Amino acid sequence: MLSLVIFLPLVGALVLFFGVKDNPQVARYLALFTTLVTFLLSLRLLNGFNVGSAAFQFVEEAAWLPGYGITYKVGVDGISLPFVLLTTLLTPICILASWESVQKQVKGYMVAFLALECFVTGVFCALDFVLFYILWEAMLIPMFLLIGVWGGKNRVYAAFKFFLYTLAGSLLMLIAILVMGFKGGTFSIPELMRVPFSFTLQVWLFLGLFSSFAVKVPMWPVHTWLPDAHVEAPTAGSVILAGILLKMGAYGFLRFSLPMLPDASRFFVPLIFGLSLVAIVYTALVAMMQKDLKKLIAYSSVSHMGFVTIGLFAYNQQGLEGGILQMVNHGVVAGGLFLLVGVVYDRMHTREIARFGGLAHRMPIYAVIFMIFTMASVGLPGTNGFIGEFLILLGAYLANKAVALVAATGLVLGAAYMLWMFKKVLFGEVRSEEVAALRDVTMREIVLFVPLLVLVFWIGFYPAPFLNMMHVSVEQLLVQAGTVKAGAAAIPF
Amino acid sequence: MSKHLLIVLAPLFGSLIAGLFGRFLGNALARLVTIAGMTISAVLAIQTFLEIAVGNGDPIRQEVWSWILSGEFHVSFGLLIDRLTAVMLIVVSGISTLIHIYSVGYMAEDPDQPRFFSYLSFFTFAMLMLVTGDSFLQLFFGWEGVGLASYLLIGFWFKKESACNAAIKAFLVNRVGDFGFALGIFTIYQVFHTLDYATVFRMAGTGQYVPTLDFPLCGSVETITLICLLLFVGAMGKSAQFILHTWLPDAMEGPTPVSALIHAATMVTAGVFMVCRASPLFELSPTALTVVTLVGATTAFFAATVGLVQNDIKRVIAYSTCSQLGYMFFAAGVSAYSAAIFHLMTHAFFKALLFLSAGAVIHSMHHEQDMRKMGGLRKKIPITYTVMMIGTLALTGFPFLAGFYSKDAILEAAYAAHTPVGTFAWGLGMAAAVLTTFYSFRLIFMTFHGHPADHHSYDHAKESPWVMLLPLLVLAAGALFAGYLGSPMTHLGWFKSAIFLAPGHDAMEHAHHVAAWVKWSPFAMFLIGLGLAYVLYIKSPNLPRLIAERFRCTHQFLLNAWYFDRLYDRLFVQTAKRIGEGLWHTGDEGIVDGCVNGVATICAQLAQQLRQMQTGYVYHYAFAMLVGVLVLVSLYA
């Protein structure tokens, strides 16, 4: 069942690659069909998921490289399930978003997208460290292609920057994984959670994993690949990048660092808090000055992910649940904002804020949708952004008041750059012919936004189903993260 | 659905229908739907008021649904209607309904009416959520909700650059306040493990909390004082108090009905409501009460001085609002919460009346707001003149009108508090009373008396339609009688459990027994202010100009509202922009990318040089081998 969800998109990709002539329309429909079926299947996962259990569910296991203790093993718990669902929801939206805007090599594009969905879902479901690593790396290839082939003018530079940044981190992660595997005698993730590593080793392992996760989150100062990647990526690429790929780093902290290396994680809390606070304030200020819409949203992503990492390392239920929920929220909201940018980019072929202005006159429905996502982004109560940010800040406050104080300035700064951007794009007089000729969102485009808008308000007013999903798993994680595995806390440097 | 829930939700339904289907419904139906929603809400609110406040019914408590649950943290949407809420319900629903009706006339020529009415009703919904909430988080929900509504309505004419900027300013300044409010909420949760009013107040009353919290660098801080001060930062933002007041005058960029509803009668009073609602906490912290008194008194005086010299008719009233809110705060600060709420109610009537009449003046003058271009209008628009005069008299405390009861109650309470800050507040309040009368009559004289400054607009000025005048008349009745009818509110114990008074905090009780000269001195202030205004604007109209020239510095200082805007722009806006620019170019593009690109360049150069070694000549390789062998041999030999 779970394997079906993971591999159905890959099957679709293979069928498309080998079985179909190069017909764009067929490629589009086949990709949409595959991803929709995958989404429906993932809903069945949700239906069968037992929220009362912290154990991994839907576990499937098969021998793979028994000599090295490597198996094919997948399963989900309350921490990974939200991300699986987010992936399967966002992918069909991305396919639909690329319906008209991607015209060259449609087949290849769809194949890359389907492969990407398979790898990403796999990353969230993998219960074997080597399997995780392979999928983590494999996912880079379609993403690299999406930016490098279907991207904007500067796409090659952006694609390489993205690739090198992430690869550099990955190598250190590989070493950490191998050391953990050989020391623990297994690569099984649930079993590794029970292996006691010495404190010194934990510290080095943490740094190894950190180098990879921090790049993906991205945390300051290794965030500079993100604005370039976003600017050059096609709309759907940005949606996936912001919606899902950025979540993998933070997911790594949740799945590996916190439960497997609890002592080192606690040791590095000041580092994480420090970098996150810098990210929140620094990137918010930088976002304020951006002239390119996508860059602005990209920088706001870094700022929002800063909140997430604070939540995860607050070591309490509110912070962790807020952090996980905020990742989902950010996927929904940043995804929605990138789609909105895509809508005007398709019409005007520019993302320069100064070229817009007065869009609300020509595109009233668009303006309303934009306003809702803007408000969700600044965390207005009643939207999903509020629940996430509030829980994170509450958790942070309980953990460390000074951190919460600095982080909360993000509320003001975030509102400043978002409202300022909103004004420049949508308000004011219509100043150019281009804007005057704009037509409002089409039915296809509205369909893209509806599921995301539903989530914005659903989580905003009734987050219980989403939080219930993670309660028990988060409780268990807190127990794991709270246990002292190594005795002495000598500083290893 | 319960009747009480419908009070809150009826405006929301109206708003959603008008907002989502406005383009299909058309202007008339969209207006009808929202007004219907508001009327249902208002009628039920009055009924509830009669049950609870007049008929002595018990407070209503109702849990609607569970909102957030995470670990031990649990908050619900709920409904709490006690006497405090009941008063607010009347004010909010009642005045909002009148303003909806007025807007039918005022906005008649606007093409975007469904949007406008949808926003207005949405605002009312948020405000009702705010006053009916039974926890601090629901208060926050409504709080930010009205912030959004205010942002949308100030920026309603989004073609205008100035309107958009004012909207953003309002949202951001409020966010600064909300930043404090949010931290206050976190502290409440940390100390009481709940955000529910009833539990928090009970625990605070019985002392079940940690009295002090330790902070790095600052040492230990009294818990309750910390909470109250943080909450008060929120109140300062929403109620435009000194330091966080700068957004309110700019908010006048919105349509006039909005100014009346949001920026005079309801939203800006949320801060006062919050302090009164949290009286069980504020009462426990003398420090917090002192701060509230000082800030309130300062605002009352400061805003009144600025109001003296403004020429925009709406700005005068805006600064007046700011100043009156200051009165309400210092009343709360001397533990005269009932006087604060009483003034909040009467003020809602006469300030809405003043704003809407100003709107009628602007309407009849074809959107002219500069008072210097008006004059002599009383003959052209006598009904508007009459109601505006009633509003002015009510505001300035003419005997037996609304303000006479409520403002005097506040001043007497401040005097009777017999504390240094109380006396300070009383002094500033008295001074502000002179200024209030002066600027109010200055407005009346410049607008309605004297000679018309602009004959063209004067000739075309005509009375507003009945749909606008009718709400004015209702509000005028309120300005006439609300004070008399509402005065029982100030009696001890009228609010029952809704307001808590610590033992010894009996300023309100003593206020009823102050000496006669204290009781009548506000009236003396009224006479002085009126006399000054009469001399300067009727007797010798050239004098103000001469004074302004003589005291240029002071005049400019007041005209620019003590230069707060310029200061904040330099201090925060420009600085943030400069830092942002610097971080972007120097930090991200310079240092971080410099390192990354640098590493890449070094790699590329290394590869380039290594490549050059692959020459392809056998004797090069042979030579290298020879050297290698020699090195190895010498190392291991």
Order of neighbouring strands in the sheet with most strands of chain B: 1-2
- The helix tally of chain A amounts to 22
Percentage of residues in strands of chain B: under 5%
The major β-sheet of chain A equals: 2 strands, antiparallel
Q: Give a count of the beta strands of chain A, DSSP E runs of length 2 or more.
A: 2
Task: Order the strands across the largest sheet of chain A as they lie in space.
Answer: 1-2
- Secondary structure: helix percent of chain B: over 70%
**Overall 3D shape of chain A:** globular
Based on helices, strands and strand pairing, what is the structural class of chain A?
mainly alpha
Rg of chain B is: 30 Å
What does the largest sheet of chain B look like?
A: 2 strands, antiparallel
State the assembly state of the protein chains.
Answer: heterodimer
Radius of gyration of chain A: 22 Å
Q: Biggest interface: chains and residue counts?
A: A-B, 61 and 54 residues
Number of strands of chain B: 4
**Secondary-structure element order of chain B, N to C:** HEEHHHHHEEHHHHHHHHHHHHHHHHHHH
Order of helices and strands of chain A: HHEEHHHHHHHHHHHHHHHHHHHH
Provide structural commentary:
The complex is a heterodimer of chains A (493) and B (637). With 493 residues, chain A is mostly helical. Chain A is 75% helix and 3% strand. Chain A contains 22 helices and two strands. Chain A has helices at residues 2-19, 24-48, 81-101, 106-125, 129-138, 140-150, 155-184, 189-192, 199-216, 225-232, 235-260, 262-267, 269-288, 293-312, 317-348, 359-362, 364-377, 384-399, 401-426, 433-436, 443-461, 464-482; strands spanning 57-65, 70-76. In chain A, helix 17 (364-377) packs antiparallel against helix 19 (401-426). Chain A is globular and about 65 Å long. The termini of chain A are far apart. Mean pLDDT of chain A is 87; it is low at 487-493. Chain B has 637 residues and is mainly alpha-helical. Helices cover 74% and strands 4% of the residues of chain B. In chain B, the strands form two sheets. Chain B has a two-stranded antiparallel sheet. In chain B, strands 3-4 form a two-stranded antiparallel ribbon. In chain B, helix 1 crosses helix 3, helix 14 packs antiparallel against helix 15 (382-396) and helix 15 runs antiparallel to helix 17 (420-448). The longest helix of chain B has 52 residues, at 3-54. The N and C termini of chain B lie far apart (97 Å). The mean pLDDT of chain B is 88. Classes of the chains: A mainly alpha (493), B mainly alpha (637).
